[in-house]
Task: structure prediction
Amino acid sequence: MACGGAAAAFAVNFTHPIELVKTRMQVSGGGLGATISGVVKEGGVTAFWKGLPFGWGRELSYTSVKLGAYAPVRNAIGAGPDAGIGMKFLAGALTGGFGSILGNPFDVLKTLAQTNTTGAGLGSLVGDLYRDQGIGGFYRGVEVNIMRACVLNATKMGVYDATKGLVTEQTGWGRKDVKTSFTAAFVAGFFMTVTVSPWDMIRTKLMNQPTDKKLYDGFADCAAKTVKEGGVLSLWRGFIPIWARFAPQATLQLLTIEVIYNQMGYSGI
Result:
């Protein structure tokens, strides 16, 4: 799992600005250009990395499990390279769901930090949340976060694993070949965006509620209000920045962990 955490912590340095833009678009409903210009006006280029320490915490907890534990869990349930894609999806869902429980506090704080325009420091965000909602505040939105993580990791790891096998068959490249990993990761990034966007939208809204006020009564209420306000397609708001984040993030994470596995003598995914 340490390999997965290291790969994810490295990748998030490059993808955090894209996620910040995506999160603000989901919360404000604004367009891509207006959101980017607003961030620059607010705090300059460095504002795109607002909340990065919480991003590191999330990757070292949540992603270390969902990415680093995938191969051991996959092998443990008999979903090796030759198994059907359904078993690979199951392995991804198991590791993603468990990892999301560990990373939920960092997810909440990261979301609050990314949407914060008051200039409050990271310590203030933590203190205000604990003061108003106690420990439970750090786990708001955990239900949808678990569901999102199961869908995301099942899609990401299942599609990546299956695509590696398909690419190997069609091209003759080895499973450890960088070209195989890159192609499979890019394909996985697209399908992740398609399946995860609605869950991501609802999770962001639940986690971005004020610390002293409750806007939504859980997952179903948030989903219903979102669809009522903007229609079904509003669940995919921010699709482009989500894809712009997922594609390079999945590629960086998966290529990095494959390199780490190879260097340490482990078999790859």
Notes: The chain has a mean pLDDT of 88. The first helix runs from residue 2 to 28. The CA atoms of residues 1 and 16 lie 21 Å apart. The chain has ten helices and no strands.
